[in-house]
């Protein structure tokens, strides 16, 4: 399956890890709807690792843990589809998943059929326990082909953490997104690290196969599986804006049954989601670093001729950014300047004398949607 904009949804791993079950999945599906997240575009409900029994069945098939999923996976799929949502599941190209449940190695065709029969729409495919002598790219191509022939449209979401130069071969596998980073944790250091890891690989992402910066930690506040010390609201805002501007999939990782209003407003920022989901699919780029590489200036040209601009301050002090708008394709002789608003605050901004200036506090960002206006 091909999706021309980054997939959006919710995934169990960041908060719940092995503590998953049918009730949690369906309650979270209901919460997606009740909170308005579904209407904002979050469509996929993804069950990550730890859903299966430790052993396959006699017929070699994967078996959902009956204590966690008493009605089986087809039932879960049907319930999600009935709610207008899509169903994601998880497997691994090695003999075992990362949490040591059965992996799909040498069972790719059988498992793809099983997922198709259950009504799965999305497969996250991990990279643990690969056998010696078999390359990851071979195993991913296998699963890509198995999915393309399983009789159902299943979106293939690779999760090889950027290992083994994934960017060089992922586009040959049929994957629609590829994890370009190690796992995220609920700290600002982790967010900063994952953003910096994108700097040299942005040209490899985009329509066809998006760079996946891992699931969102917005609203975790230190709770759950990858919750460590948590982040401030500004840090979560910076995190979400970066994932939108850099065209990463947007997979929520907090407990959406219990979100505070700030979390909801960040995840539902429709202006940022519109940048993430811009149908033209132009690649984002870093036009320059302001002073140092903790101050990236990120740009994405949008389908209607607007420009998305993000000033990210990942340092511990204030940053007085100035951006030559010539960098963004607006030379002075064009007789144009840029005007628009900041997307978290609604604050109006315009370039003056060929520069756009703004002050951004530490661990915060300013993100604008700008359009061309006559300079005079
Ligand atoms: C890996 C992946 C995570 C998660 C776990 C599950 O670490 O990168 O996103 O799926 O495995 O065990």
Brief sketch in words of this structure:
The protein is of the alpha/beta class.
Structure, described:
- The chain is an alpha/beta fold.
- It has two domains: 8-276, TIM Barrel; 285-374, Immunoglobulin-like, CATH 2.60.40.1180.
- The chain is 26% helix and 22% strand.
- The protein is built from eleven helices and 16 strands.
- The protein has helices at residues 13-16, 22-34, 37-40, 72-82, 108-118, 136-148, 166-169, 188-196, 233-245, 261-267, 270-276, and strands spanning 8-11, 44-46, 86-92, 122-126, 155-158, 177-179, 210-212, 250-252, 285-289, 296-301, 307-313, 319-324, 336-342, 348-350, 355-360, 364-374.
- The strands form three sheets. The chain has an eight-stranded parallel beta sheet with strand order 7-6-5-4-3-2-1-8.
- The termini are far apart.
- 48% of the residues are buried.
- The mean pLDDT is 97.
- Bound molecules: alpha-D-galactopyranose (GLA).
- Alpha-D-galactopyranose binds at residues 13, 48-49, 97-99, 126, 159, 161, 183.
**Percentage of helical residues?**
25-40%
Q: How is the CATH topology of the largest domain named?
A: TIM Barrel
> What form results from the Cα inertia axes?
globular
Mean pLDDT: 97
CATH superfamily of the largest domain: Aldolase class I
**Helical region count?**
11
Radius of gyration: 21 Å
Strand content: 15-25%
Order of helices and strands: EHHHEHEHEHEHEHEHEHHEEEEEEEE
Strand order of the largest sheet: 7-6-5-4-3-2-1-8
**Main sheet record:** 8 strands, parallel
| Annotation, overall tally of beta strands | 16
Give the end-to-end Cα distance, rounded to a whole number of Å.
Answer: 48 Å
CATH architecture of the largest domain: Alpha-Beta Barrel
Uncertain segments of ≥5 residues (pLDDT<50)? none
What count of domains describes the coordinates?
2
Bound molecules: alpha-D-galactopyranose
